[in-house]
Here is the input.
Amino acid sequence: MVVKIINKSKHQTPSYETMASAGMDLRANLSELVILKPLERAIIKTGLYIALPMGYEAQIRPRSGLAAKHGITVLNAPGTIDADYRGEIGVILVNLSNDEFAIKDGDRVAQMVIARFEHTKWEEVNVLNETSRGDGGFGSTGI
Here is the structure.
């Protein structure tokens, strides 16, 4: 699939790191250092603008290394970029650690996955078919 992109950042266009990668790293496009204090959040701009085909979305997801090592994650994970959005891609980062975290220009702050979606048409009914799980949720299938 080909997606049109405008890259106004100082950094390379996102790309897949390996042949089997689902996501592409997004880099911070900053004019100055951003310090995220504990429990603080900020929108980190990327300098990227895209035009997705109808029926697709771009999902913005945390980078596992930032989350595991530093407690930095995407606040509304996954964030969604709709096919009709033409503004700059921004990433809402939050610091869930007890330490300040510095974000520098060019840092990889999130990953973007392009995914197909379907629109749903609702059919209202009075009864749903039975399953072995039933209405069990929130950990009901595990220990």
Q: What stands out?
A: The chain is about 5% helix and 35% strand. The longest helix spans residues 64-70. Helices lie at 64-70. The longest strand covers residues 108-116.
